[in-house]
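Narrative summary of target 7.
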Amino acid sequence: MSIPEYLLVHSCTLKKRTGVDRDRNPTYTETVLTNVRIEATMRTERESIGETRADTMTLYIDPEHTEYSTTVNGETSTAQVLPDELDAIEWQGRTFTVRSFMPCYAQGNAPHHWEYNLE
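Modeled conformation, tokenized:
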């Protein structure tokens, strides 16, 4: 049992930090995640200093249907790469940070899917 494939209509790029270069800029490994679902909650919060955008996203990764593609030095790998907290997710030209995640179980010992909260 998994999330139906017709609901997994999005693709995004996972950027995992691998270190820093000689100029102290962060370096990343990029993995393209296809067949995922991203749901957005767009809102504006009013504060004493004005309005602030407080958009949050939920990324759903299915263990059966989600596909992974990582290219490093011309070599392509399709191994499963899951985001960790503070990794970056690029979607529709914007970059979001993984703030928390939760494996969701149905029956059995393996996760049914993973839910990631992005800000």
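The chain has a mean pLDDT of 90.
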